[in-house]
Write a structure and sequence with these properties.
single chain; alpha/beta; Rossmann fold; 3 domains; 4-stranded antiparallel beta sheet; 17 helices; about 15% strand
């Protein structure tokens, strides 16, 4: 536990300084051997899942703000453990004291012992603190409350939950019933989607290396169906990495697919996915907002514009996003999304369809942006979808937005 506490607090500190948590953990894995990666990840993710509450508690426990960020991060990890793990309280406190520098041992011990004595009192004192209640920044809470007055509380709570692990069965290689016989701990969500009762490492999934199944959120699996694909179509998946939606499209129809991404490193992820699944698709590296650098001038019948976004619909998978995002970032994302949509629209064939997609729940990036685009484009028609285009996060899927546009 000592190493896990210490390294998790390092990851928390780097993230509070503005760094991506997943990449920070990756660097820790690369520089240390024999770690309990699962425990370190649980502790660091847990701190940001409940950072609003932990921060409020720590502020009440301290007489003055801590100048030593290392000690502060260690205390946040220990407070998370005391409330959300099954480890014995005495072991958590003792290990935190041992992990702290000599000059801080007395402070760490005093703060954590004080929390143990005053836990109920502290919770009562912060009961009307919205940031502590919802574990999201104030601006985020207020924005969702304004845009989803009836659902904002459920959206925020879902963002703090642990995400489900869902699979997409490769129907080109097996059937749903056949795979269920190999993995009875799954339940069917659709004709090709399964949800595990408990997450497992991918190497333990039956047939994963043989390409029978892929890990993909159930909400993300809507994209391929919304596109109404037919054999022989020329299709573009813009911003395609790591390739889950591209692979799903290739599994559904015999199409001429171009999978585009701006990063060579991420493009290799698409290639690895195609290889594992036994699929054949063209992979290009280029900026979706600058078609002149990669487009050959031949229009596409279908385009998936899965644009960069705030990722506000997938914060339970990346809880640091809640605290790293700033309110002004949303407008910046919307501007980037408009540029990409305008650029890709030029490459769409007459009567072709473009599916605009984000993993956001904010209207500025979704319905509002699409409405403005359609209003400005005489040849753009917004088509109805079988499901509500705004998927809110729940126990089966993350938060996604879809809008299907057709060019007259």
């Amino acid at each position: 536990m000592l190493d896990s506490q210490r390294l998790a607090s390092q990851a928390v500190l780097r993230t509070l300084e503005g760094r991506n948590l997943a990449r920070t953990l990756g660097r820790i894995w690369a520089s240390h051997d024999g770690l309990d990666q699962g425990q370190i990840q649980d502790l660091s993710y847990g701190v940001f899942r409940y950072y609003g509450l932990l921060r409020a508690e720590l502020d009440l426990l301290l007489k003055a703000p801590l100048k030593d960020r290392d000690v502060e991060s260690l205390l946040l990890v220990a407070l998370y453990q005391l409330q959300y793990t099954h480890a014995p309280d005495h072991a958590i406190v003792n290990h935190a004291v041992d992990a702290s520098k000599k000059s801080a041992k007395g402070l760490v011990n005093a703060v954590l012992r004080n929390f143990q004595r005053r836990r109920n009192e502290l919770l009562e004192r912060i009961s009307d603190n919205a940031i502590a209640r919802y574990n999201h920044p104030k601006w985020w809470i207020e924005k969702l409350k304004a845009q989803y007055p009836d659902d904002y509380s459920e959206i925020l709570d879902a963002g703090n939950s642990r995400p489900p692990m869902t699979l997409r069965v490769n129907l080109g290689k097996t059937t749903l019933s056949e795979y269920l016989s190999m993995a009875p701990e799954c339940i069917a969500l659709s004709d090709s989607a399964l949800m595990l009762s408990k997450p497992v490492p991918v190497e333990k999934l039956p047939g994963f290396s043989e390409g029978l199944v892929s890990v993909q959120d159930f909400g993300a699996q809507y994209a391929a169906s919304f596109l109404d694909l037919k054999d022989g179509m020329r299709v573009l998946d813009a911003c395609a990495a790591p390739g889950g939606k591209s692979a799903h499209m290739l599994e559904k129809a015999d199409i001429d697919l171009v999978s585009l991404d701006s990063s060579e490193t991420r493009a290799k992820q698409i290639e690895e996915n195609f290889t594992r699944l036994g699929l054949d698709g063209k992979i290009s590296v280029g900026d979706a907002a600058s078609p002149a650098s990669w487009w050959n001038g031949k229009p596409f019948d279908r385009i998936l514009a899965d644009v960069p976004c705030s990722a506000s619909g997938v914060v339970r998978r990346h809880p640091d996003i809640k605290w790293l995002r700033r309110e002004e970032d949303i407008a910046k994302f919307a501007e980037q999304q408009r540029h990409i949509l305008e650029a890709l629209w030029q490459t769409l064939a007459s009567k072709g369809k473009l599916l605009y997609a984000t993993c956001s729940v904010f209207e500025e990036e979704n319905s509002r942006l699409v409405k403005d685009f359609v209003k400005a484009k005489d040849e753009a028609v917004l088509l109805p979808l079988d499901e509500d285009g705004q998927l809110l996060p729940d126990d089966k899927h993350d938060g996604f937005f879809y809008a299907l546009l057709q060019k007259k």
